[in-house]
Design a protein that fits this description.
Layout (H helix, E strand, L loop, with lengths): L10 H11 L10 H21 L1 H29 L9 H25 L1 H15 L16 H42 L6 H32 L15 H12 L5 H14 L3 H9 L1 H13 L5 H5 L3 H13 L5
Helix pairs in contact: 1-2, 2-11, 2-13, 3-4, 3-5, 6-7, 6-9, 7-10, 7-11, 8-9, 10-11, 11-13
């Protein structure tokens, strides 16, 4: 995908080409936007590799088709038992209520099906990883139906841990930014008359969006960490360095201990909440834009049914990013 004449590739056009190409290998001359597009296109590339393998394709359609049918049938039966199907009428309030009930029921039944048939997804991911040419996350040759309480507890623990890390890492900067924004906002509120009224209102709105932007960036970052963490390989690097802001605070406090006192308290709180989350975070530091693309796909596909269909594909796509992060950095 190089551009003739040695000129740098056009950012949006190159990213669109990478997204359409859906290759398992990131182009050498990819820009940041193109790397985001490549990370998002990995799911499509993995799905394409699955579809080309006939036995694996047949296995995938049988397993996921049966599971999807069970999810929809169980949700509709539960709604019929509750009486929501009988109360459905041509009223937007009742239709909205039925849609919300159906969505919640599909989410719960999908979670129950995944908890019981998780080994079938892992077996599909293992076979798909071998087709793609990456290391399998887990080797399961004979999957069976079983309720894995350890997996349920670990999955719930990681979600709670991610929420705690998001709060611990973003709350102090958010409060500091809010304190900084209050003064200029009040000053602009007293000078929003006359000719400068439009500029003052626009500046107030821009200042008010800074905390929201900080929350959005922090949420996307930790969502990328969890997206890479869909592969179990991301959690096995015992020698992974700690989170880079914690390293920066530690290095700065060694030179100026009095100046970095509050930051050391923040670093200790974040480190206590993170636990082993520094391992996938280290991968995101080496491949941030690819991980962001995969996180955006996971966020967009977080719907009942679609999430079930993509569940065997996401760990393989995350493993491809991990393998790409292990390569030497670009010159």
């Amino acid at each position: 995908m190089s551009v003739s004449g040695g000129a740098p590739p056009n950012g949006p056009a190159h990213a669109l080409a990478v997204l359409r190409g859906a290759s398992l290998t990131c182009p050498a001359d990819a820009s940041r936007l193109a790397r985001v597009a490549w990370g998002g296109s990995l799911v499509r590339a993995v799905a394409r590799a699955l579809w080309r393998d006939r036995p694996l394709r047949r296995r995938y359609l049988v397993v996921l088709g049966v599971q999807l049918l069970i999810v929809v049938a169980a949700a509709l039966c539960w709604l019929a038992y509750q009486g929501d199907l009988h109360r459905l009428a041509w009223s937007w309030r009742r239709v909205a209520r039925f849609a919300l009930s159906l969505y919640a029921t599909l989410v719960v039944t999908q979670w129950c099906v995944i908890a019981l048939s998780r080994q079938f997804h892992d077996e599909l991911a293992m076979r798909l990883a071998r087709v793609v040419g990456v290391e399998p996350d887990e080797v399961i040759e004979r999957p069976r139906l079983s309720f894995d309480a350890h997996w349920v507890f670990e999955s719930f623990q990681r979600r709670v841990q991610a929420a705690l890390v998001l709060v611990a890492s973003a709350a102090p900067p958010l409060l500091l930014l809010g304190v900084i924004v209050v003064g200029p906002t009040r000053w602009l509120a007293r000078h929003d008359d006359g000719v400068l009224r439009f500029a003052a209102v626009l500046a107030q709105w821009a200042l008010a969006q800074l905390p929201n932007a900080l929350v959005l960036v922090s949420s996307l970052y930790w969502l990328a960490v969890l997206a890479v963490g869909r592969s179990g390989i991301a959690w096995r690097d015992a020698i992974a360095p700690s989170w880079s802001p914690l390293r920066w605070v530690e290095a700065g406090s060694a030179r100026h201990p009095a100046l970095y006192g509050p930051l050391r308290l923040w670093a200790r709180a974040v480190a206590r909440c993170m636990g082993v989350m520094h391992r996938p975070a280290a991968i995101v530091e080496r491949a941030p834009w690819e991980s962001l693309g995969l996180a955006l796909v996971q966020l967009a596909a977080n719907l009942p049914g679609l999430r079930l269909l993509l569940r065997p594909l996401m760990p393989v796509a995350a493993t491809v990013i991990i393998e790409a992060a292990r390569r030497p950095p670009r010159s």
